[in-house]
Amino acid sequence: MPSQDWPVPRLSSRLRASAARGFVGRASELSLFRSFIRNSSGSSDAYRVLYLHGVGGVGKTTLLRRYEDEAWAAGRRVMRIDCRTIAASPAAFLAHAAPALRDPRTVLLIDTFERCQGLEAWLRDEFLPQLPEGALAVLAGRRKPDPMWQADPRWRGTLKVVDLRDLSGEEASALLTAQGVPPSLHPSVVAFAGGHPLALCLAATVADGRPGAAAPSWEPAHDVVGTLLAQLVGDVPSAVHRSVLEICAHALFTTEGLLRAALPGHDSGALFAWLRELPFVEAGPFGLFPHDVVREALDADLRWRDPEGYRDMHHRVRQHLVDRAREAEGPHVLPAISALTHLHRRNGFLSRYLTWRNDGEIYEDGVRPDDTSAVTELARACAGQETAAIMEFWLRRRREAFRVCRRSDTGELVAVLTFLRLAPEDEEENAADPVAAAAWNDARSTAPPRPREHLLIARVITRQEFSTGASPVMDFFLHRMVSEFIHVRGLARSYVVLPENAFWEPLMGYIDQHLLPTRECVDNRSYSVFAHDWRLVPAERWLDFSRKVEISGPRRNRPKPGNAPAMMSRPEFDGHIRRALQSLNRADDLSANPLARSELVRDAATDDPAEALRTIMTHTIHSLREDPQAMKLHRAVEMTFLRGAPTRETAAERLGLPLSTYRRHLTAGVQRVGDLLWHRLHQKRPDINDAVGGQPHP
Length: 698
Hints:
46% helix
């Protein structure tokens, strides 16, 4: 029987079908290519060359494969050249691409063009102009086209440049779904990979998709990170250049000044120039920054590979950014503060409260002369008539204390931020503002501001869509608030006023703002007030607290909000001393003692607040021995609190003293310990009154 030829299915058909099912997004790029196909033969002003550029792994090759299918479906002849497989010479290129010069139906797809970037001028000036009318060419590479394309008037209307970006959030989720990743894991995968297709696909291969899997989140495995770095970054010239990349990944923006500070002794200008030329690094108004997935991969790799080196790099970068933030003025303030808070991004805590982005929907601005009615109307609509009256009152007296957030497209107000600075002579104005009155009442109950000192009251009023959880408005508010904390001179106490909501309490504790026990009610709405005493914990000490949590996040034994120190009267201080003495061997009680967060332990050699307070208390007890007249006091205090006599009677018996004499010595000894520590505390803040709460210094 004669054999019969049957069509033989090819594996390539199956692969194309599978790729088509997994293809998501790129609607505008597909629409553009289809219009090229439709218009290429009949329109004299149609584009003929499409130049795609984007970082490695962003999907250029995948899009070219889709273009190939579209071209075949339209009856076009497709020629595809992968520049990884040819020599970067005109002769080698012509050997592969010459047929395109003879057929007007050809669609020439040139992939991985960065491998033949040296041919760019030859292609522009020699090869592409020879394509027959009707033929199309698509170049895809990592680097942007040479500016000469735009400068040459011949290419105007003929060349179309497309910057291929990441997928949108919805598209990224759709890609993960197509890859079989459970929806519960999408947020954590996207948090690492963003919309970068290669990172998403690599994550999908290891994200647990088994039925019944209960993993609440996903973290990138080291092989995923390693693969991404190999694909996106490749080899670098030296270890110093690798350090430059790691600094660029860690900082929000990289400048020559940052490289000079973080890598002393190296040519920061040459290193910055090298960094600037990398295809995955972009330039912004405040410096260079890498593609998001490159940033995440580089930072995760160093943190895993060399934790000690990571911390060292972090601290060098941090010191430069702290200096910049403290020196910044005018329009440079918010970018400098944003760069500083960016250092907290990877500790697993602050990302709950900051969006880390501003997509341009709103911007922060000063109050204009014609904004009064808009501010009061916003306050009335968002809070009520009483709040509107308060805003109008302060606008007449403290217009400089106001900032606003506006919609970028219309200029409409969406939020009002106020940062009132009130000096002692301003106290009479409080009758119109219950929140300001409450702040003054709290200040008077601790230690009121002296002349040339003042209180700061920060609050935000915002439209509903920005009022719950993290939002760009709250980003602006928190960054502006931090700026006030570290820039303002003579700041005695600050008060942050927020609508009563448990969501914000951990954040306020994280930045050492402590919830007052009373709530304020305005327009039948309750507000929480968080306080900080900047004389007790000044900006330098506060920034030091921040340093300790930037990488690892808040410690579990960190005192809870409301238990940390406020400005204490002497009786309050003495009560804390007695409780600390009674709990020297109970770490939890010591951690919760307000003294564990005071200036007393500023120079402690340990980050553990309980251990720091125990050390200073023990040292002070032993210092009583240096005064011969206090030896008997030392013996009573030591026996009671350091040697752990179970009862007062036992302590007296061990000391060979009558109970009444022992008690007298113990009372005087505890008082002397308090006197020494009170004096030590005030030596660390010499700007505070010599008398606090009516009690003189010892």
